[in-house]
Write a structure and sequence with these properties.
Strand content: 15-25%
Structural class: alpha+beta
Shape: elongated
Distance between the termini: 30 Å
Strand order of the largest sheet: 4-7-6-12-11
Mean pLDDT: 76
Low-confidence stretches: 1-13, 142-181, 196-212, 573-579
Number of helices: 18
Radius of gyration: 35 Å
């Protein structure tokens, strides 16, 4: 039984080179990936690299004078933070200031324009039926025919794969030469057609003409707004539909597939963004649509969506269309041929970033308040640079002291420890550089502190292994069997120690926010790397060097001199000497 075990042990000991080759290949691949990606340095946080500071001021919603309160402000901060800092390591900071301001700090290297859109966009999404629509303002002259093209940028699908057919044209009776009177009549007629009750809105939610034939004030106001609306004018687009409640008809603007601006009269909201369970950006390989945003509805949202699409399928164009309205702007207006439920898609000329940003906003929910940018300033990194310089000096001093201790106490073994520290440093640097573009990781001052603390954790693993080897030599064993017998006990101790460190880092990462998460993330990352380096570099290297005469013979400068360690006589010689004594006594 002992012979096979010995053979397996010898086989395992004879192949330490494989582990060394494996880790060297991994280092080469990661380094090559770092240079190929063009990100050869870690992305720095705002305290080290500077960045942009944005001040957002909350605005009171019409009819909600007390909307600006601590609860809504805290909710807005939480949503903004998740939008720009989903994994907690991108170093974007979101915090309140006073009763109605939110400060957003974005580190240098982040797309500040994209981040400003992420935090400033309210992301209130509604699905509204289209009552009437036409090409607006200056874009009318570019319209090739009297009928206005809707150019829907979205399609919607049911769980049974049925899809809503995108409309090719809008059947609004309004022509490019329509007068204000005909536009008002179109609005009135559309409101009459939409005055019947529908799922998600009451019969009284849409204003209707009075019995005498005169137009009630709400409809007259809507007529006037629609007539005056020029969607080719940026100022008109910004104010279109301001103050409209979800249960009321409204006007809105949106671009059609030809890039022309259209204006709409929309019915009451039938489905809201809160009815969306999840959203994601996917690339459509089945069509030329490119990137699109997919949405899955909640159980209640699916029922509402089925009800409104079932009603619209019975209407004539353009009233068989529904508009997907994001923050007051129509992003798509597909037509409906049958009742749909389950999920929906928003497609169009999205880039990957635009699709991901929209999905991100829909996934994390709408802000409870609307905000305006009060100021945008540039933050310098002068103070952070000084602190980083001081931190690096402290780290260099600590590293020098560790190396000095290893050289004095472990002598030749210190070469193994120093080589392992270098491998760990290279892996840490390369991974930090790659994690910047991958997950938005930014290196801040606390993260630098975490990397410095990791030097001690890594050195501690080497010391445990070396001391176990020395213990075996003190028992009278030669170096090669001492290394193999010491490894299982040292391995258990190293794994337990690193597990405790990693658990502490994980708990710290979960229960904290802001810069402390950078410290916890770096500490956890370096702890995992410590295990990798010890298993795939330190142990195999020690096994190879144990075969060299310098270490195997116990040279005084090897750090493994049996005399200096107070080794006992060899175990086998002791057993042979005691055997005759036991025989005579017997």
């Amino acid at each position: 039984m002992a012979a096979p075990k010995k053979g397996r042990s010898a086989s395992a000991q004879s192949r330490p080179g494989r582990a060394l080759v494996l880790i060297l290949i991994a280092i080469a691949a990661l380094t090559g990936g770092m240079f190929a990606s063009g990100h050869t340095t870690p992305r720095l946080g705002i305290d080290l690299a500077g960045g942009t500071s944005i001040t957002l001021t909350a605005k009171n919603e019409p009819g909600q004078p007390n909307a600006i309160n601590k609860t809504n402000m805290d909710t807005a901060v939480d949503i903004m933070n998740r939008r720009v800092n989903g994994l907690g390591v991108s170093e974007a900071e979101v915090q309140t200031q006073g009763s109605d301001n939110i400060i957003v700090n974005i580190p240098k290297g982040t797309n500040s324009k994209q981040a400003r859109e992420q935090v400033g966009t309210t992301a209130k999404l509604y699905f509204r039926p289209v009552l009437t629509t036409e090409v607006s303002g200056a874009d009318k002259s570019a319209t090739p025919s009297p009928s206005t093209s809707s150019g829907s940028k979205a399609t919607d699908k049911a769980t049974d794969k049925a899809t809503a057919s995108p409309s090719s044209s809008s059947s609004s009776s309004v022509t490019p030469s329509a007068t204000a009177t005909s536009q008002g009549r179109a609005v009135t007629d559309a409101l009459k057609a939409d005055s019947s009750p529908s799922a998600g809105s009451s019969a009284s939610s849409s204003p209707t003409p009075t019995p005498s034939g005169s137009v009630d004030p709400a409809t007259a106001k809507l007529q006037a707004a629609y007539t005056a609306l020029d969607c080719s004018n940026k100022a008109d687009r910004a104010t279109a539909g301001d103050g409209a409640k979800p249960a009321d008809p409204t006007v809105a603007c949106g671009q059609n597939g030809s890039g022309q601006w259209q204006k709409y009269v929309l019915g009451p909201a039938e489905v809201a963004g809160t009815d969306i369970k999840k959203a994601g950006a996917v690339f459509d390989t089945q069509s030329a649509a490119g990137w699109k945003v997919t949405m899955d509805f909640t159980s209640g949202g699916s029922k509402k969506f089925a009800a409104i699409t079932g009603k619209l399928a019975q209407q004539q164009p353009p009233q068989n269309q529904f508009a997907i309205v994001l923050d007051g702007e129509v992003v798509s207006d597909p037509s409906v041929a049958q009742s749909l439920s389950g999920s929906a898609e928003i497609s169009g000329s999205f880039t990957q970033t635009e699709a991901q940003d929209l999905a991100n906003m829909l996934k994390y929910g709408a802000l409870p308040l609307s905000f305006k940018e009060s100021s945008v300033t540039t933050v310098t990194a002068a103070l952070g640079g000084e602190q980083l310089h001081a931190g690096l000096i402290a780290g260099a001093i600590g590293l020098a002291l560790v190396i000095l201790y290893l050289v004095i106490y472990y002598r030749g073994l210190s070469a193994i420890a120093i080589a392992s520290l270098l491998v760990s440093a290279v892996l840490t640097y390369v991974l930090m550089a790659l994690l910047g573009p991958a997950i938005g990781f930014a290196l801040n001052l606390p993260a630098v502190c975490g990397a410095i603390v990791a030097i001690g954790i890594t050195a501690d693993s080497f010391i445990v292994f070396f001391e176990r080897i020395r213990d075996e030599i003190r028992e009278g064993r030669t170096l090669r069997p001492a290394v193999e017998r010491a490894w299982p006990r040292a391995r258990r101790t190293i794994l337990v120690s690193d597990f405790v460190s990693f658990l502490a880092a994980a708990v710290l990462f979960i229960v904290t926010v802001g810069k402390v998460q950078g410290f916890a993330f770096t500490l956890g990352l370096t702890t995992v790397l410590d295990v990798v380096v010890v298993f795939f570099f330190t142990k195999p290297l020690m096994t190879l060097l144990a075969r060299k005469k310098f270490f195997a013979s116990g040279h005084p400068w090897s750090g493994l001199d049996p005399k200096r360690l107070g080794a006992k006589p060899p175990l086998r010689r002791t057993r042979r000497a005691s055997a005759p004594v036991d025989t005579k006594e017997a």
